[in-house]
Amino acid sequence: MNRTDTKRLVATNTNKSQPRKTQKTPKLVRTATPTQIPPEAGNGYLDQLFENAQEAIVMTDNQGRVLRVNSEFERLFGYSQDEMTGKLIDPLIVPKGHYNVASCLTKRAAKGEQVVMDTERQRKDGSRIDVSVLASPIRVNGTISAAFAIYRDITERKKAEQALNHRIEFNKLVSFISSRYVMTNDFDEATDFALREIGKFTEADRVVIFLLRENEPVFDITNEWCKKGVSSRKADLQGTPMGKLPWWMKQIRKKKYVLVRDVIQLPKEASSEKDILDRYNIKSLFAIPLVAMGDFAGFIAFHNVMRTGVWDNGDMALLKVFAELVGNALERKRREDFLRESEGQYRSVVEMASDGIVILQDAKIKFVNPRLGKMWGGPADELLDRNLTDFLHPDEIPKVLGRYKKRMAGEEIPAIYETIMLRKDGTNLNVELNAGISQYQGQKADQVFVRDITERKQAQSWRKMLEGSIEAIAMTLEMRDPYTAGHQQRVSKLACAIAVEMGLPQQQIDGLRIAGLIHDLGKVTIPAEILSKPSKLTETEFSIIKNHPQVAYDILKKIDFPWPVADIVLQHHESLDGSGYPQGLKEKDILLEARILTVADVVEAMASHRPYRPALGIDRALDEIKFGKGTRFDAAVVDACLAIFAKTFKLD
To answer: Where are the domains of the chain?
Structure first.
């Protein structure tokens, strides 16, 4: 059969289940009798569909010889039409080891079955690809005269599946290692286990932990795992001076990783490191810093001695997580060593601490420092061996006792939280607890730092009073101008919503809210008849209006706010292009809070009724800030404002 005959066969007998170019492949239903193409379909139409399909398509005779392939098949497998025509398809694209399955697929299609499967195929250049195959017979007048197969490249999908499975297995391993650290007091035993498991997982030849000696610029190998047949370097590299690793230390002391994919490619400044690696036949490595108690403590190194190693970004991210796990375990060990081996010094430090400290075992108090006794209002030794719940406000007992039990059971829960302590005289004391697992007299314990937060609570109360006063001032101001009643509250509400959308921290949002509530404070000096004038202002009247940010600033600068409220209010009529007032500031000279307040003020003012015009509506207001985006108004602020209104934000 020549190529023209083949085209005619395609035009009249292509199966309807062939995927269309613009559609995802539907879920296929296997049937014994494939659906027939309608005879009215034109040859030219189906021929174009065959050639332009996004999937690779091949047509074969009943013996599996190629009749025709489309352009995508030529691209995917690297063969031309002429190279394949008349040849058996399987020897061309089926890798060794897959012949039997592929032959079965071809025979089943020739017998009238429609078959779908995921498998592996081979390109002309020998490279392999993962594909999804749909094979189906072609019937002419009820007789199977040929077959076709559709191939879809699923390499990326397979890679994604493999990466996901790799991450799942890593998470299982980390969980397993974490439990090992939690359940044992032997750090070295747990670490040797961790190195062995992570070494097998990463297929490294050797995994080594180097730790800095105390008060010496020297590294010691404390733990090592080697693959079978790989020599230990624990003795050889013991006591390695930091001075021999200048290039290395420049990277790793900044808490960055060191990646050497091939020792041959090390830069000239790493000549000292290259000498060491060559001496011990280390061809490639990946090293990650260990951090304990916030300080650089050493590093974990993954060695390849039999091959150069290529760690991709995914592998490196996972190994950083592993290093954090080991660093946390090391920190815990050092804290426990400090408690166990230096108890006399510890007691001295603890007794002088400004915070109360209590150690709990079995929900009973086993140790307290003098500061906690003072906070309680009695001698510290009267607290020993008493139940934790004896010193808690009744309403707080379920929370504190529940967290204690979860922490002792090894659950991850927040370490810092507030509660109410019951003092000896029956009065309440607001405290903040900072709890963590430690060792006391060789047994697991809960060590809790207790901080008196009375002043903090008073400051919070003062802040509430301040905010209440600010709101009262705002309401008093708006009584002078009934047409703008509620304006400042609505501007403040909108400004805060914009700030939240932009991801600003709460401290900054709090200051913005206060500034919004009193941004028109300076209008207190403007005659009421100007504020409520229904006609156009004269130039003199407008100059008086324009002075209100400066008047407000002069009043507010004398108040010691915890935020730059005075400057925010002063700048809330400035524009990025310098056309604003009173200072004509531009761009970065304007505080971000002021740029937010400007947009909120414009939107609220235009959307609301004024004595000199009716409300223009929110759509007109949003059009205005769109028009001034990047010139008068900050683009990021405008985008955030538009976003919140798209989420059905309401001014009222």
So the answer is: 3-153, 161-339, 345-452, 457-646
User: What 8-state DSSP symbol labels residue 521?
Assistant: G
| pLDDT the model gives residue 43 | 63
Tokens 């005959």 identify what position? 5
Kindly write down the DSSP assignment for every residue of 360-384, as one continuous string.
EETTEEEEE-HHHHHHHTS-GGGGT
Q: Kindly report the average pLDDT of the chain as a whole number.
A: 84
Cβ contact 69:50 at 8 Å: no
Structure tokens of 530? 């100007």
Give the DSSP letter of residue 120: E
Tell me: pLDDT of 253 over 80.
no
Contact 115, 109 (CB under 8 A): yes
Query: Across residues 321-338, what is the average pLDDT?
Result: 84
- The answer for residues whose C-beta is within 8 angstroms of residue 376's C-beta and 6 or more apart is 383, 391, 421, 423, 424
261-270, 369-378, 465-474: the lowest-pLDDT one: 465-474
CB 545 within 8 A of CB 525: no
Distance (Å, whole) CA 554 – CA 550: 6
Location of structure tokens 């490249």: 153
For residue 371, give both structure tokens.
Answer: 């500061």
Whether this prediction's pTM lies above 0.85 is answered by no
Mean pLDDT, residues 123-134 taken together:
93
Q: Residue 70 above 90 pLDDT?
A: yes
Using a pLDDT cut of 70, give the percent of the chain over it: 88
Architecture of the domain made up of 3-153: 2-Layer Sandwich (3.30)
Would you place residue 483 in the very low, low, confident or very high pLDDT band (cuts 50, 70, 90)?
low
Checking DSSP bridges between strand 295-304 and strand 356-361, what pairing results, if any?
Answer: unpaired
Bridge partners of 433, per DSSP, are 417, 450
Q: How far apart are the first and last CA of the chain?
A: 78
Per-residue pLDDT of 572-629, as tens digits, reads 999 999 999 999 999 999 999 999 999 999 999 898 877 777 888 899 999 999 999 9
Strand 416-422 to strand 284-292: parallel, antiparallel, or no bridges (unpaired)? unpaired
Place of tokens 């400044």: 269
Whether domain 457-646 has CATH 3.30.70.120 = no
Whole-angstrom distance, CA of residue 326 vs CA of residue 321: 9
Q: Which of 89, 84, 87 has the alpha carbon at shortest distance from 102? A: 89
Give yes or no for residue 351 having a pLDDT over 70. no
Q: What's the count of helices (H) and strands (E) in the chain, helices before strands?
A: 24, 16
Amino acid at 519: H
3-state secondary structure 441-459: CCEEEEEEEEEECHHHHHH
Strands lying side by side in the sheet with 128-140? 66-69, 56-60, 143-153, 128-140, 115-122
Do 3-153 and 161-339 share a fold?
yes
The CATH topology of domain 161-339 is Beta-Lactamase (3.30.450)
345-452 CATH fold:
Beta-Lactamase (3.30.450)
Residue type, 599: V
Q: If DSSP states are collapsed to H, E and C, what string results for 585-648?
A: CEHHHCCHHHHHHHHHHHHHHHHCCECCECCCCHHHHHHHHHHCECCCECHHHHHHHHHHHHCC
